[in-house]
Amino acid sequence: MTRLRDNNQKISSTNAARSVPHRRSTTVHSHPKPSQAVSATSIPLRAVAQDHRDESQNTVRAVTLPDSTHPHQPAASAIPPKTIIAMLGFALLVVLGLVAVSLVYNTQDTALAETSEALTVIESDPSTTWNQGTVPHIYQRDPQWSSIPYSTSTLGDMGSMPACLVMAYVQQTGDRSITLPALSAWADQQGLASQSTEDYEQFLDAGADNLGLSVKALAVNELSLRKALLQNHPVIAITLGATTEPWAPALIIGDITEEGTLRIVDPVSPERSQKAWTFEELLGQCQSLWEIQQA
Fold first, then answer.
1. pTM above threshold 0.70
2. 3-state secondary structure of 262
3. Where does 120-128 have alpha helices with state H?
4. Strand, coil or helix: what is 152?
5. Which of 92, 128, 278, 292 lies deepest, with the highest CB count within 10 Å?
6. DSSP bridge partners of 292
7. Distance (Å, rounded) from C-alpha 249 to C-alpha 243?
């Protein structure tokens, strides 16, 4: 019996010993090996790293995509629209300012020119130089008689017609005794002093008759004017400037130059009296023409 128990114990021990490896084997097969666990754990790490790199690359591509995908797309303006509008507005203000300055200077220049002309002393030819055959320069604004009363004003303002008749008289006769103040005083006494061009014909008829002259109306054309001047007869022109400056209401045409232009005397303007005028230029300013000669 004792041996049987010993044998049974041995057998049990043996069986027990055999059973232990069998349980370990089962335990081993139920869990992954260390190397396999490491490998399984490293796969998600690579995926995360790859995903991170892909996100970084995608971010870079998202920034550079418009230039690489649309190479011909024009770049957006670097200047905001409001800034452009402001710049244009400033440029417009500068232009308007320059225009305003120019107008101011032009106005000042005109005012200075008018002041200079007003301050310029207008002198007529001295009576000692008056000769027959030549129309003297007699200006109604000559200070020696410009302030003498005439009609409703002065000779300086309204004396163009008597000045022209005196010049025509001197050219035809050479007589130096009839002066502008003398003729204007006679016209005032006779009630012939007037600024109206409608009264000029009456003044010419009466004044010429008193001075021993005759007056003849001419057609306002080159042929009539040329014929009178070639006969050495001065022509008084009543101009459209009676109501339009800067022409005087009346001026005198003396002769024709060798160049075929006209010599005139404008009683209010030495400058126009020094200019050579074409027939076309002068006739365009004339309302009527009156030929003067000795009776």
1. no
2. strand
3. none
4. coil
5. 292
6. 215
7. 8
- Angle, to 10 degrees, between the axis of helix 180-189 and the axis of helix 200-211? 110
Collapsing DSSP to helix, strand or coil, 164 comes out as helix
| Separation CA 273–CA 281 (nearest Å) | 14
Tell me the C-alpha distance between 83 and 255, whole Å.
Answer: 69
CA distances from 216 to 144, 174, 230, 234, 236 (A): 32, 21, 15, 11, 10
User: How would you write the pLDDT of the chain (295 residues) with one tens digit per residue?
Assistant: 445 455 555 545 555 445 444 444 444 444 455 444 444 444 454 454 455 455 545 544 444 444 544 455 555 556 777 788 888 888 888 888 787 766 655 655 555 544 444 446 899 999 999 999 999 999 999 999 999 999 899 999 999 999 999 999 999 999 999 999 999 999 999 999 987 777 888 999 999 999 999 999 999 999 999 999 999 999 999 998 654 456 678 999 999 999 999 999 999 999 999 999 999 999 999 999 999 999 9
CB 160 within 8 A of CB 251: yes
Distance, in Å, from the CA atom of 177 to the CA atom of 115, rounded to the nearest integer, reads: 35
**Hey, which bits of 111-160 come out as E strands?**
149-150, 153-154
Q: Which two tokens stand for residue 119?
A: 């301050």
What count of residues does the chain have? 295
Q: HSE on the CB side for 44, CA within 13 Å? A: 4
Q: Label residues 88-126 b or e (16+ Cβ within 10 Å = b).
A: eeeeeeeeeeeeeeeeeeeeeeeeeeeeeeeeeebebbe
